[in-house]
Amino acid sequence: MKELVGHKDFCQLFQALYPRLYSYLLARVGDPETAQDLTADAFARAWQAWGQLEHPEACATYIFSIARHLVASHYRRLLRAERANGRLSRQGDMPMLAEPDELFFHQEDKREVMEALEILSSQEQEVLRLRFEAELGSKEIGRILGIKEAYVRVVIHRALRKLRKTLLGRVAA
After folding, report:
1. What is the CATH number of domain 96-173?
2. Domain boundaries, the chain
3. Which CATH class for the 1-93 domain?
4. Which of 70, 91, 90 is nearest to 25 (CA)?
5. 86-139 pLDDT, tens digit each
6. Residues 6 or more apart whose Cβ sits within 8 Å of residue 142
7. What pLDDT, in 10s, does the model give residues 48-72?
């Protein structure tokens, strides 16, 4: 009976997290098919470890940590493949917060935000991705990145302030 309950719990977790995880991964890789593959991979790995998780309340954090590592592996594979082919291209660069359904309506605004995001450190970018794309809280982000919850809030505040200042500066110019 425990196995059935565990299976039910995992199914509920899957249904609750799938849209957020897929959105996060799509924003990171920019390709719907790759994002689906990585999402499936993350849940498959989580299922393998399901019976061994000590803190069920940390499952979302665990799955997003898996996803984050899968993205890093994905880009390492792309880089190795491009090097093996003797060419490096901008296609291997990590896309920033791509949201295909919004591109049609907000392409100009999006371009400006994307450019503004480039001023942020990689940590600030990652924290904002987890906060706004994956809709995670500061506590979960802290667990995923191995930093304190209070520091996550500071990073979010400072990064948003930098973005606001940059974007307002462009509007005034």
Report:
1. 1.10.10.10
2. 1-93, 96-173
3. mainly alpha
4. 70
5. 544 444 444 444 444 443 444 556 677 778 888 999 999 999 988 888 888 899
6. 148, 149, 151, 152
7. 887 777 666 678 888 988 999 898 8
Contacts of 70 (CB under 8 A, 6+ apart): 25, 38, 41, 42
Which 3-state string (H, E, C) describes 141-173? HHHHHCCCHHHHHHHHHHHHHHHHHHHHHHHHC
Burial class of residue 135 in the structure, from the number of CB atoms within 10 Å of its CB (0-12 exposed, 13-18 middle, 19+ buried):
middle
The amino acid that residue 104 corresponds to is F
Q: How far is CA 36 from CA 21, 89, 130, in A?
A: 10, 24, 17
- Report the range of poorest mean pLDDT among 2-6, 36-40, 153-157: 2-6
Two structure tokens written together for 70: 């899968």
| Amino acid of residue 167 | L
